[in-house]
Amino acid sequence: MKLPPITRDLALLITRIGLGIVFVAHGWQKFNTNGLDGTAQGFTQMGVPAPTLSAYYATAAELIAGVALIVGVLTPVAGVLLFLDMVGAFAFVHMSNGVFVANGGWELVVTLGLGALVIAAVGPGKFSLDRLIVKTPARETVNA
């Protein structure tokens, strides 16, 4: 059964906003609550390579690309940057802690990363700045 295009576009909008809010909240925490130096120090303690550079990347990606997801601008780039951010979080911090976030596990970073990757792959949908700036036809998706 194929759903109406408006359903897909609304689902993409809601997903972009939800993911974007979570990314912005985490970026803001790194920037404002912990501070970039505190974030880098935490990354050092967790064994993250190049902790200062990693702290700046994670903070900027989560804040800037998170906002980009919310408004739907440069979504392929934003989605890939956020996916890579979560790959790093998975590999260097959460992978060895098991699945559950309550134990420091990877369920949240995998969910966020895969959600961002899907948005990068399928596009932002009709309700986005990308669609206003670049007039392109909506991509068709395969419905099972």
From TrEMBL:
InterPro entries: DoxX (IPR032808), DoxX-like_oxidoreductase (IPR051907)
Membrane topology reported for the UniProt record: Multi-pass membrane protein
Domain of life: Bacteria
TM region positions: 10-28, 55-74, 108-129
Annotated localization: Cell membrane
Keyword field: Cell membrane, Membrane, Transmembrane, Transmembrane helix
One Gene Ontology CC term in the entry: plasma membrane
Entry similarity comment: Belongs to the DoxX family.
Name of protein: Putative oxidoreductase
